[in-house]
UniProtKB/TrEMBL annotation, chain A:
It comes from Oceaniradius stylonematis. Pfam families: ABC_tran, OB_MalK. It is found in: Cell inner membrane. The lineage of its organism: Bacteria, Pseudomonadati, Pseudomonadota, Alphaproteobacteria, Hyphomicrobiales. This is ABC transporter ATP-binding protein. Keywords: ATP-binding, Cell membrane, Membrane, Nucleotide-binding, Transport.
UniProtKB/TrEMBL annotation, chain B:
One of its GO terms (biological process) is transmembrane transport. The chain crosses the membrane at residues 12-36, 70-89, 96-115, 151-175, 196-218, 259-278. PROSITE patterns: ABC_TM1. Keywords: Membrane, Transmembrane, Transmembrane helix, Transport. It comes from Oceaniradius stylonematis. Belongs to the binding-protein-dependent transport system permease family. This is Sugar ABC transporter permease. It is a multi-pass membrane protein. The lineage of its organism: Bacteria, Pseudomonadati, Pseudomonadota, Alphaproteobacteria, Hyphomicrobiales. InterPro entries: MetI-like, MetI-like_sf, Sugar_ABC_transporter.
TrEMBL record, chain C:
Signal peptide: none annotated. The keyword Iron-sulfur does not apply. Residues 3-233 form the ABC transporter domain. This is ABC transporter domain-containing protein. Gene3D superfamilies: 2.40.50.100, Nucleic acid-binding proteins, P-loop containing nucleotide triphosphate hydrolases. GO terms for cellular component: ATP-binding cassette (ABC) transporter complex. Pfam families: ABC_tran, TOBE_2. SMART domains: AAA (SM00382). One of its GO terms (molecular function) is ATP binding. Keywords: ATP-binding, Cell membrane, Membrane, Nucleotide-binding, Transport. It comes from the Eukaryota.
Amino acid sequence: MAKITLSHLAHSYLPHPASEDDFALKEMNHVWEDGAAYALLGPSGCGKTTLLNIISGLLHPSQGSILFGDTDVTEAPTTARNIAQVFQFPVVYDTMTVRDNLAFPLKNRGAEPAYIASRVAQIAEMIGMEDQLGRRARGLTADAKQKISLGRGMVREDVNAILFDEPLTVIDPHMKWALRTQLKSLHREFGHTMIYVTHDQTEALTFADKVVVMYDGRVVQIGTPEELFEAPGHTFVGYFIGSPGMNVLDANIEGDRAYINGAEIPLSRGYGELGGRVQIGVRPEFVSLTADRDGLPVNVRRIEDVGRHRIVRADFFGTDISIIAGEETPVSADMNRVTFRPDKIGVYVDDWRVTGGAA
Amino acid sequence: MEKTVNHKAWFLVLPVLVLVAFSAVIPLMTVVNYSVQDSFGNNQFFWVGIEWFQEILTSERIHNALGRQLMFSAIILAIEIPLGVFIALNMPKRGIWASVCLVLMALPLLIPWNVVGTIWQVFGRVDIGLLGHTLAAMGIDYNYTQDAFDAWVTVIVMDVWHWTSLVALLAYAGLQSIPEAYYQAAKIDQASRWAVFRYIELPKMQGVLLIAILLRFMDSFMIYTEPFVVTGGGPGNATTFLSIDLVKMALGQFDLGPAAAFSIMYFLVILLISWVFYTVMTNLDKREGA
Amino acid sequence: MTLQLDGVTKLVNGQVHIHETDLTLEKGTMNVLLGPTLSGKTSLMRLMAGLDRPAAGRVLWQGDDVTGVPVQRRGVAMVYQQFINYPAMTVYDNIASPMRLLGKTKAEIDAAVHKAADLMKLTPMLQRKPLELSGGQQQRCALARALVKDAGLVLLDEPLANLDYKLREELRVEIPKIFEESGAIFVYATTEPEEALLLGGSTATLWEGRITQFGPTPEVYRNPQDATTARVFSDPPMNFLRISKAGPKLLFGDGQSCPATGRLGELDDGRYLAGFRPNHLELDQHVPDALEFNCNLAVTEITGSETFVHLDHHGERWVGVIHGVRDLTIGDPLTVHLDPAHVYIFADDGALVAPAAYAQAA
């Protein structure tokens, strides 16, 4: 096991990238802790698979280096990197039994038969396949096959990292959370460094200690699920995490006050002079609809009742905003004003969050 | 999900049924008719029952031809299948060279049977053939018209040259369908080259290889044109395979009755073996899909 | 324009897929078929479309019996879970194709295609081929085609199931808008309660080939008539707990009770089934008379703005949905609170005997 260092790492699929736009992966510097579970989250085309392939050694980066522990492995082939990987589709050796499948990586490395037997038994128990060890892998369901793939990824104790490439794609929806939960407990039990690529926010947030949100070839935020929800570092994070996404509004900032069309919104922190496009972001959960004269005027357009809460869609100085109201919070026609929770408002300059000082 | 039942659709199958009746069923019934009758010409026939079948079953000549036939099929399968797989494994996976290889491999398959026979007939001649002449010049005593062993070698080499590409192309298609992730997983598992072949490539090629074996078996079991052109079944009866024997019997000697009985049994043997193959293959599919 | 199913049933190889069903759908309504996989949603739609013939019963369209009439001769449009478009045609030609079959004039077609494309935000992509589009755009193309057909009956079979969640979020909002303009009968099958609620209109809940309840969507959600409907129309499914009523009190086991007020007071003493929705379990106590349950936290799941907690309550599996992202330790004991006003009471056979007080107030 090892920490993973990405140093000035960037990649372009073009031989002579001219501008930053030519890079599928923009230059990044990160250190990922040993033994933590990371999720790479983002929409398709955001560069998360490129990054995974660089870590696994399938792709050689155009620039920069990657280190496992203190060893530079940029030039090392996959075999020499001592990693395990679980793919999007189950990769099992069809003609082997479940037992032989799980034992395969250990056998190839010449482990002791007694050790192999005990380790395979342990993994089989974790993935809940103890009673199927003697079966051939051919003919098992996709779920079972993917469990074998997960088990095979987990069987070696000395790997630097285990990589998961959207491993739950082929799994039936109602089985997904069971496997996801199993993965999480496997991580707790064995403490491997894990990197999990997905476009599904629930998978990422549930599995990972730290979620790496990627957008347009860039890492826009690395944080715990709470941080991503409470303080999105980039407007994209605000949009992508949470349903509906964060409200983003053009504003002027003066000290600890934001102004939209002259209307004043108090902030909990103070900000200096800001250049570029200035916006404030606030999640629908932290906006309340009110009849109170202190609020700012909105034009309620529709109310969506989703059962456990209601989503109010409204027009706020020409911008669409969403407001979440509790299931039993009364919403009446005279409620045509909104208030924002000052401590939950973020200030964004050119889409990036800026931290202010104490107000 | 089942569909609305509409029996009118069966009428659409009618033309095909008529066509099959004319092209297959009626000729087949004629053969059946011949096989149980004898004729002394003048279109006069009389019933002989299963006499011809008994004659064929006990005929030493047919037994020998069958033995040669089985031997031939066994040898060419033993050579073409492993060789085809070996070639497929070594073909480039993508790029311009993959296309070039595919075209080159497909070339022998495009040549008509009798032309293949003629090519090798000329190629192997000691007087003017490039191969025969070269071998003779090297001091090797090679003559497929005189020596039974040489004749066999020639016919087998010719068939291997003609048909190994088919096996290779099928195996290649099987290999191409293996997702890249399998190879990557094998690398990560530190599997040996042999293990990759044994546990990934071979199982994934299983389906197409069965088809290849079936096709090559049926085809080699019915081989006629090429050996007929090259050796004419000789020297002696050394390369007289079943179909050559059948033609000799039917057209050479005009023994229509025995030839008809022979044809029917020939047909049944091929049907039986194909059925066995088919059953094995569908069972494999079932296990796969379970 | 009405579509009426009159005692229809559907058998497959002797097995009942749809039990005797009566259902009347009116012009210009959105009707959601809500139920888990294999509950009979698709079977019911196929009967409505005329793709299958019912084993018994009649299908009436505007009062006329159309039971044996094949789908080609009914005005039906259908959109499937898979994105089905003609791959060789441009988006424009795809959308135009049903109108061309109807022999409309060029000008009519052009106007309708542009209108539908505009609504579906496909205008910049009209000259592209479907496979060059994203999944969401492909499905919008299929929806546009269904729309221009101007069919009296539009059947949508889980049209958003194969899209990722942000796209689903957008289209869910768009679909009811589109529907507002056309006067057709819409039928929309989904497995997701939230989708049914967003679409509004009326909802029929399905369970094992039977419609358990049909009515205005919020009404079915808040006042389910039986435990099955409540379970189907709740995501995650409703939690249940055996309770008993003794005199003026409801006993919840482990010594807890709450006063049996209102209609509950009129119930006979005996055993009942209490049901409550996952989102009504709370970590903090908000009302003074809240019930309190000591559970063990088995699993947590975070969806971005909510945390799902899977609880073990004396061997029963419950799920709670907690607002916000919470960092909780799996395996730890967890105390959850429940406002008695959120509890539905069902009889042993599953029939509702008393709705939750809050739903009555709303």
